[in-house]
Amino acid sequence: xxxxxxxxxxxxxxxxxxxxxxxxxxxxxxxxxxxxxxxxxxxxxxxxxxxxxxxxxxxxxxxxxxxxxxxxxxxxxxxxxxxxxxxxxxxxxxxxxxxxxxxxxxxxxxxxxxxxxxxxxxxxxxxxxxxxxxxxxxxxxxxxxxxxxxxxxxxxxxxxxxxxxxxxxxxxxxxxxxxxxxxxxxxxxxxxxxxxxxxxxxxxxxxxxxxxxxxxxxxxxxxxxxxxxxxxxxxxxxxxxxxxxxxxxxxxxxxxxxxxxxxxxxxxxxxxxxxxxxxxxxxxxxxxxxxxxxxxxxxxxxxxxxxxxxxxxxxxxxxxxxxxxxxxxxxxxxxxxxxxxxxxxxxxxxxxxxxxxxxxxxxxxxxxxxxxxxxxxxxxxxxxxxxxxxxxxxxxxxxxxxxxxxxxxxxxxxxxxxxxxxxxxxx
Length: 427
Known about the structure:
The protein is an all-alpha fold. 72% of the residues lie in helices and 1% in strands. It is built from 17 helices and two strands. The protein has helices at residues 23-30, 32-44, 51-67, 74-99, 107-124, 129-154, 158-177, 189-193, 205-233, 240-262, 269-287, 289-299, 301-306, 311-337, 348-360, 373-391, 396-423, and strands at residues 182-184, 339-341. Helix 4 crosses helix 16 and helix 15 crosses helix 16 (373-391). The relative contact order is 0.18.
């Protein structure tokens, strides 16, 4: 018997896993080639971002422009920007809720109730309009907090809580409005500022360009401050060339939009309010620890708890935020119609449009992924469809069918994107 031992057959060495490269380092080392490499990596990995909705919006505009040359005129684009503000404002609050992977079916009724509180107090009881606005906003935030409390503390599913809230607040709204079921308000004061005939700096063309300058300056200044902070901390930072490219792209869009709107009457004040709300909400989500906690809870509740995050507080506060934005949206809608009633502000149609705007804009229904800018992109898509069909004198039924198809397409893209990310190890 031989004492020699058999040597196992040599196996090929397993190649070492390729370490992940920070995109900022890639761009800094490879320049514009790095941008292209990073873009391809994201697309292959299912990280599509706002690309599908931007492409879809371009197609929608091209189709309607080919059917009616009036579609892309300054006046029509100004109308699109104005009328998307109410639905978009409600959609901002819904983005916060969707980031948790939940839903809020009460936003239309909360917005209607808040608008009714303002109308009844200011018209029927002669309350100072500013105080009436504050009470309307408090109403929205309080009702949202009530939904959040039942959801976070009692454990009632958010779907059930907000569906019950939708019915209850609609009933309370009708009770406040009285036997007529509506209250008419005047085109004056605060509501006039949010109305269709109110423009930033009273139609002075400098107003639109001033807003463009402020937008570019804010992005450039914020990016340079962040670059300096990250450089001092010794962590990867965006190169100056990237900051310049991003700021330049924003400048082209901002000044182009300002030029177009100035061909009409300028920038509607309601649109300025909506864009201001977007900036504030984006800062909260991306630049604060509270915003990071929202994404953490939406990504994994158990992991968030183990990290020491107060999940109940996050949930309650998110629904309060949703109610607050619903109140703002209700006031903007009231400024558009000058009538507070169930058929307008508190309607199911407004609810569906607000949810569709957030989802179509790119916020995931599955939680943990999205941006408040989804409210703007999704609102642009929906309002463009509605305005385009109105120009073509198409029936409302067609609008609903097209909106439903676009919403389904957005959810399908989101689902496929998540599957692709999981397959790529990024889910």
